[in-house]
Amino acid sequence: MLQNLNEVNDRHQVQGDNRDFVELNYYTMKQLEKKYGSSFYILNMKKLRDNYQKIYHAFKSKYKNFVIGYSYKTNYLPILCKELSVLGAHAEVVSRLEYDLAIKIGVEPEKIILMDH
To answer: Is 71 helix (H, G, I), strand (E, B) or coil?
Structure first.
């Protein structure tokens, strides 16, 4: 699994806000396709964390008690679900497969919301 796009092409690195970014252009995408095949995900984990914190603080400013739940049906990539769990999100699951995934990645059973479909 690719953890850092810089592995693919250091020549397309650009600076911004004291962080390194990789420009996703045709060349970079072709390099990723060559390495991983034509189907792959690119997740911006920093953006995910930032967005989660924005949502969390927006709700916290208005409500005393609330729960942020992530629907595994949306996208149940383990790395994504695990990161959301670490951030504090509950797992919203509708199937045994999703429930088992939540348990496997370490979600506490009391933080699993079982939805009836």
So the answer is: strand
